[in-house]
């Protein structure tokens, strides 16, 4: 069984959308990634940090999904990272109301011995110095290293981010971030420029408009499934990343053809994430539901046409 190591935030979120709001609930990039990847029955572990205020029941939720939490450091006298946001009516834009880094501000990641031989590495959205530290702690390069990042790090730590980008295989960013990183408006040109920075594969997420996969002149597009209801978009991008790397880790196949299937798997799982607040939908998602919706994706994208 392949091993997957996930680095990212384990946090509290407070969310407000046009459909309601929550108090502090379980959140964080590593949480969403790991819950999504767990649907593929692989052995995964998280490297993160939380405070003494983080409930034991949240650890139990993750452990019940075969997610190893030994790499989550607990700072007993500290507080867990907290984010509060409010989504606008279109759910595509949001305002960040509170960001309390708390224990994350001084986070020094430690990779557990059990995962130093990990086959796959998923670097969730964090400070590039933390991402680099994890890369340096793994003695044998994993089969595939995937990076997620955001415009905040491009604005504030670009040099460090570029050093990390040079050491990875796949980068997943949204269209706005791809344009900022590359300086190109065309996403095709943007992907070409980003590939020259290091990664062989570029995945550009376009939210409700799907995702693009680029590699060496080849392009694949996966649509997002049209949904009757979108309740809370929080964590959808991380859920996509978890489905993407989870599918690849399950199969062990890092070819472009298999990455196409991985992009569809990521889009499929992300479509569930948005149906409830926070991680609720991902925690209770069944195998049958996943397979049934995969069929919907297949019907959405498959067609016969006569070429003349």
Number of strands: 14
Described by the principal axes of the CA atoms, the overall outline is: globular
By DSSP (H or I, 4+ residues per run), the number of helices equals 11
Indicate the low-confidence ranges by residue numbers. none
Q: What is the averaged pLDDT score?
A: 95
How is the largest sheet built, in terms of strand order? 6-5-1-9-10-11-12-13-14
Give me the secondary-structure category. alpha/beta
**Would you list the SSEs in sequence order as H and E?**
EEEEHEHEEEEHEHHEHHEEEHHHH
Helix content: 25-40%
CA radius of gyration: 18 Å
Strand content: 25-35%
Major beta sheet summary? 9 strands, mixed
Distance between the ends: 47 Å
The gist of it:
The protein is α/β, with parallel strands linked by helices and 308 residues long. The chain contains eleven helices and 14 strands. A nine-stranded mixed β-sheet has the order 6-5-1-9-10-11-12-13-14, with helices on both faces. Strands 2, 3, 4, 7 and 8 form a five-stranded mixed β-sheet that branches.
């Amino acid at each position: 069984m392949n091993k997957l190591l996930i680095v990212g935030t384990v946090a509290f979120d407070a969310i407000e959308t046009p459909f309601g709001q929550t108090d502090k609930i379980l959140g964080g990039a590593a949480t969403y990634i790991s819950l999504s990847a767990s649907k593929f029955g692989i052995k995964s572990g998280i490297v993160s940090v939380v405070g003494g205020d983080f409930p034991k029941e949240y650890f139990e939720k993750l452990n019940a999904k075969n997610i190893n939490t030994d790499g989550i450091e607990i700072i007993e006298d500290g507080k867990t990272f907290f984010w509060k946001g409010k989504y606008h009516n279109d759910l595509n834009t949001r305002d960040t109301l509170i960001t309390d880094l708390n224990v994350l501000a001084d986070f020094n990641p430690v990779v557990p011995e059990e995962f130093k031989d990990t086959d796959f590495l998923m670097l969730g959205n964090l400070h590039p110095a933390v991402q680099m530290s994890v890369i340096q702690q793994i003695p044998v390069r994993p089969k595939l290293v995937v990076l997620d990042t955001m415009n905040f790090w491009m604005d504030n730590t670009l040099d460090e981010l570029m050093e990390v980008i040079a050491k990875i295989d796949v980068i997943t960013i949204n269209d706005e971030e791809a344009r900022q990183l590359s300086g190109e408006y065309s996403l095709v040109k943007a992907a070409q420029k980003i590939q020259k920075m290091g990664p062989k594969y570029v995945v550009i997420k376009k939210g409700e408009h799907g995702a693009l996969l680029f590699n060496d002149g080849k392009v694949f597009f996966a649509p997002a499934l049209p949904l009757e209801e979108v309740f809370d978009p929080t964590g959808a991008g991380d859920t996509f990343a978890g489905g993407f790397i989870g599918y690849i880790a399950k199969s062990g196949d890092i070819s472009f053809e298999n990455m196409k299937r991985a992009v569809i798997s990521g889009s499929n799982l992300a479509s569930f994430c948005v149906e409830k607040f926070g991680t609720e939908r991902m925690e209770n998602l069944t195998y049958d539901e996943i397979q049934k919706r995969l069929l919907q994706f297949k019907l959405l994208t498959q067609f016969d046409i006569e070429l003349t």
